[in-house]
Amino acid sequence: MNERFLDQAERAVEAERARAVQQVTNAVAGAGRKDCRDCGDEIEPKRRAAAPFAVRCVACQQVAERAV
Predict the structure, then answer these.
(1) Between 31 and 66, whose confidence is greater?
(2) What was the pLDDT predicted at 1?
(3) 16, 38, 60, 68: which has the fewest Cβ within 10 Å?
(4) Is the pLDDT confidence value at 28 over 80?
C-alpha cells in the first residue's frame, strides 16, 4: 500500500471519530425536559438531576431501550 492512501484513510477515520464524539457531546450537553416526551408525565427530579439531558421518564426510557 502506498503511504498516501494510508494517510488519507487515517484522516478519514479521525474525522469520523471526531464527528461521533461531537454528536455524543451535543446530546449529553443538551437540555432535557420536565415532562416525558412519550407519556407526558413529569420526569422525576432525581432523574433530571442525574441525567439533565433526559427527555423520557425512566419507564418510557426502558421501553425505548428494549425496542432497539
Answers:
(1) 66
(2) 62
(3) 68
(4) no
Beta carbons within 8 Å of 56's beta carbon, 6+ residues apart: 36, 37, 38, 43, 64
Which residue range(s) make up the domain with 68?
31-68
Question: Which position has the grid cell 494517510?
Answer: 7
Rounded distance, CA 48 to CA 31, Å?
A: 10
Specify the pTM.
0.56
- Of 57, 60, 61, 63, the C-alpha closest to 43 is 57
> Is 43:61 a contact under the CB 8 Å cutoff?
no
- Greater model confidence, 41 or 27: 41
Lookup result for grid cell 454528536: 23
Domain count, the chain: 2
Query: Does 64 share its domain with 39?
Result: yes
